[in-house]
Amino acid sequence: EFNQAEILSTYIAREFKKNSANNILLRHRQTKTQTELKNKERFLNVANSFSVENRINLKEKNLLLIDDVLTTGATSSEAALTLKNAGARAVFVLTLAN
Question: How many C-beta neighbours within 10 Å does residue 74 have?
């Protein structure tokens, strides 16, 4: 499966001599496709759909979350909230397109 965000994260990590961790954030609940939903529905659709890999310690880490597309920000917001709730100090979001 072609994953633009993963390719970009690998490149950015290499350029900045940082680790790329593509398996920290897990989608534990299937959601409807966001393309057919209105803004409010998109946020409700992805609510509580992510979790963090148990073995990963995010306490006080600053993270860069990379996504391929940002429309309403629902998915990125929910993902960032999940990472913050797992202990991350800050979560910055970089997207390829909006």
Answer: 21
**What single-letter DSSP state applies at residue 81?**
H
Torsional sign, CA 81, 86, 87, 90: negative
Q: Are strands 50-52 and 25-27 parallel, antiparallel or unpaired?
A: antiparallel
Q: What pLDDT score does 23 carry?
A: 85
Beta bridge partners of 65: 93
Long-range Cβ contact pairs of 80-84 (< 8 A, separation 24 or more): 82/25, 82/50, 82/51, 82/52, 83/24, 83/25, 83/52, 83/58
The pTM of the whole model exceeds 0.70: yes
Q: Can you tell me the distance from the alpha carbon of 71 to that of 67, in angstroms, rounded to the nearest whole number?
A: 11
For the chain, counts of helices (H) and of strands (E) = 3, 4
Pull the structure tokens for residue 45: 């659709």
